[in-house]
Design a protein that fits this description.
This is indole-3-glycerol-phosphate synthase. By secondary structure, this protein is an alpha/beta fold. The protein contains 13 helices and 9 strands. The chain has helices at 34-54, 56-68, 76-84, 105-117, 135-145, 159-168, 178-181, 184-194, 206-214, 235-246, 260-268, 278-285, 298-310, and strands at residues 91-95, 122-126, 150-153, 172-174, 176-177, 201-202, 219-223, 252-257, 273-276. The two termini are 17 Å apart. The structure holds the ligand O=C(O)c1ccccc1NCC(=O)[C@H](O)[C@H](O)COP(=O)(O)O.
């Protein structure tokens, strides 16, 4: 990677690509519909209920206390990226959720240990109530079980969620999205950074990248699933390539992928870290496996194959 990492700095060099006027771009096509709006409404309602129960004073105390004791060591995920870049391969981050409702948190923690022993560099544990009813317990168990960075995945709309993430022992979180949080995005990102957490900010277009760069964000997320509804060949990977090329000097990127092809394209586009999502992992873990090209790998094989595909030697 030619870009030098300056992930911890909130005010790193912003202009490496000359002065480009931000072009107004449409909202990301895959998320403009009802699904995102419904999800955000649901999440806001949950948060409002929690905040009401908590009361303003307790909230204030929790936010302040978290800020007084940042996590140590801080910025473990960003540091991992920084240390991995010179090796010429991306950091491989794997999504980890219960393969079946009967899986317990401690079984999940054991899975986490196995994945790490097979070469997973970091893990992501989803906690959104729509996908799991045991997210908080799972996050806690996995954070305790492994020494690699563990990131929480949720829709992050309020700083309280960031303090909960810290309390669970996670190294950071996915789910701060520019198109969702608007002007509040930079505040959420800097609050996470102040607690020593790494929170890649998800960007969808050049306007997002420029706004976040100006706000000092140094770690960016790209979700290739955005834009799915357009169903144009190569739309997602072309978009990712453009976005990664637009990142400011010193910034790092995490790109979410659902296939080997996407992993390879993400790497070729310059992704510093690759987030391997459940869409690629679940078929490998499924007990009764539908015929699919990945079933032959098993999780250990999947990790090994992804390392091969993304290391740049193929
Ligand atoms: O989901 C990704 O690919 C991703 C990549 C890099 C940073 C963050 C990412 N996701 C965080 C999110 O909160 C997702 O945008 C959200 O869960 C929706 O994901 P999906 O349903 O897979 O589009």
């Amino acid at each position: 990677m030619s870009r030098r990492l300056q992930l911890h700095s909130r005010h790193h060099c912003q202009a490496s690509r000359g002065k480009q006027e931000p072009e107004p771009e449409p909202l990301e096509p895959g998320r403009t519909g009802n699904r995102l709006a419904t999800t955000i409404k649901r999440k806001q309602a949950q948060l409002q209920a929690t905040l009401k129960e908590m009361g303003e004073e307790a909230l204030e105390e929790q936010l302040q206390a978290a800020g007084e004791f940042p996590v140590t060591p801080a910025h473990r995920f960003a540091t991992l990226i920084e240390c991995t870049i010179p090796t010429g391969r991306p950091v491989l981050v794997f999504e980890l959720s219960r393969p079946s409702p009967s899986t317990t948190s401690s079984q999940l923690a054991e899975m986490a240990q196995r994945w790490v022993s097979w070469g997973a560099d970091a893990l992501v544990v989803p906690t959104d109530a729509e996908v799991t009813s045991t997210g908080s317990a799972d996050l806690l168990a996995v954070c305790r079980a492994v020494s690699v960075p563990v990131l929480q995945r949720d829709w992050i709309l309020h700083p309280l969620q960031i303090t909960d993430c810290k309390a669970a022992g996670a190294a950071g979180l996915l789910g701060i999205i520019t198109q969702v949080s608007g002007r509040g995005t930079a505040v959420m990102s800097s609050y996470a950074a102040a607690l020593g957490l790494d929170a890649p900010v998800e960007v969808c277009n050049r306007t997002d990248v420029q706004a976040m760069s100006q706000a000092g964000v140094g770690l960016f997320g790209v979700n290739l699933a955005v834009g799915l509804s357009l169903a144009l060949p190569n739309f997602a990977t072309d978009m990712a390539k453009g976005l990664l090329a637009d990142l400011p000097f010193g910034a790092a990127s995490l790109v979410g992928i659902r296939s080997f092809d996407e992993a390879l394209k993400a790497r070729l586009a310059g992704a510093d870290a690759i987030f391997v999502k459940n869409e690629l992992i679940n078929p490998v873990l499924a007990e009764r496996k539908p015929a699919n090209p990945y079933q032959k790998y098993g999780m250990e094989g999947l990790i090994e194959r992804l390392k091969d595909v993304t290391c740049g030697d193929d």
